[in-house]
UniProtKB/TrEMBL annotation:
Binds 1 S-adenosyl-L-methionine per subunit. Binds 1 [4Fe-4S] cluster. The cluster is coordinated with 3 cysteines and an exchangeable S-adenosyl-L-methionine. This is 7-carboxy-7-deazaguanine synthase. PANTHER family: 7-CARBOXY-7-DEAZAGUANINE SYNTHASE. Residues 34-253 form the Radical SAM core domain. It catalyses: 6-carboxy-5,6,7,8-tetrahydropterin + H(+) = 7-carboxy-7-carbaguanine + NH4(+). Homodimer. Pathway: Purine metabolism; 7-cyano-7-deazaguanine biosynthesis. Residues 131-154 are annotated as: Disordered. Keywords: 4Fe-4S, Iron, Iron-sulfur, Lyase, Magnesium, Metal-binding, S-adenosyl-L-methionine. The gene is queE. Mg(2+) binds at S56. [4Fe-4S] cluster binds at C47, C51, C54.
Length: 257
């Protein structure tokens, strides 16, 4: 099992900026403020965290990808002719070339970046979709998604998962933002409340309760069916917004959905 936090680059870079692309597809945005909006997704591979529940296992725990030139990615997006483009991963901001891609797409498309909030970017972003990772995301030998002990990743994940400077920068920089928390149960709420307070303390921007979204943990329809009502009830109780996972409800999170 790969345990490095980066994907190995090919020997030659003769074609200019390249990105490890896991998948590129058209679907409906399944999560967040823009749920239901037709969008083209660009999924990079490689992540600096290892959430035990990662629904994109082949971009984090065991990354797979093709190396594509930024211009090649732009051409595939153009061919699908969306209004909205979602750049996700893996963690898209671990790659410097993601900034180049965002800059190339910015004039034509509405850009959402799905990020775990641990890294900053100067690139143009319309919606920073920030999903800070809670203590309940940390991998342990008991919950890790493979037979292998998560080893160094328990500590690496735990020490890297929150970076207030990056969170402030992402909130301040984008045209709009959302804080989209994966919720496993009621025990996550004290940490969410305290982190939202901390973020309010470091950004000059207003963080409304309606910018805070609770998303049920669940990679499959069955798993989601077990968590979503409790999470919706928690959102109503605490005054936050609830977000569904439409692609899981509709297509069971199959590849390219
Ligand atoms: C695969 S991540 C990629 C972007 C970035 N690495 C991040 O975590 O925000 C895309 C979105 O899926 C969410 N996610 C991943 N696994 C999930 C699960 N099992 N249940 C609910 N949401 C999940 C993440 O929190 C994030 O909002
Ligand atoms: N339909 C759909 N909507 C999504 N919103 C965020 C996603 C992601 O994996 O970042 C995602 C995804 O994988 N599929
Ligand atoms: S930060 Fe995102 S891509 Fe990385 S392991 Fe967690 S959910 Fe998966
Ligand atoms: Mg997804």
């Amino acid at each position: 099992m790969p345990v490095s936090d980066s994907v190995s680059r090919p020997d030659t870079d003769a074609d200019g900026d390249r990105l490890p692309i896991n998948e590129l597809f058209a679907s409906l945005q399944g999560e967040g403020k823009l749920a239901g909006v037709p969008s083209t997704f660009v999924r990079t591979s490689g992540c600096n965290l290892r959430c035990w529940f990662c629904d994109s296992y082949h971009t984090s725990w065991e990354p797979t990808h093709a190396w594509m030139g930024v211009e090649e990615v732009v051409a595939e997006v153009d061919a699908l002719a969306p209004e909205h483009v979602v750049v996700t991963g893996g963690e898209p901001l671990v790659h410097d070339e993601t900034a180049t891609l965002l800059s190339e797409l910015a004039d034509e498309y509405h850009l959402t970046v799905e990020t775990n909030g641990t890294l900053e970017t100067d690139a143009p972003v319309d919606l920073a979709s920030i999903s800070p990772k809670l203590a309940s995301s940390t991998p342990t030998p008991e919950n890790a998604p493979t037979d292998t002990d998560p080893g160094v990743w328990t500590d690496k994940h735990e020490s890297a998962r929150i970076d207030l400077d990056s969170l402030a920068s992402l909130v301040d920089h984008a045209d709009d933002f959302q804080l989209k928390f994966v919720v496993t149960g009621r025990d996550d709420l004290p940490e969410i409340e305290s982190l939202v307070d901390d973020i309010r303390g470091v950004t000059s921007r207003e963080v409304r309760d309606s910018d805070v979204l609770l998303m049920p943990e669940g990679q499959t329809r069955d798993a989601l069916a077990r968590t979503r009502t409790d999470v919706a009830d928690l959102a109503a109780e605490f005054g936050y917004r609830y977000t569904p996972r439409l692609h899981v409800d509709l297509w069971n999170d199959a590849p390219e959905t």
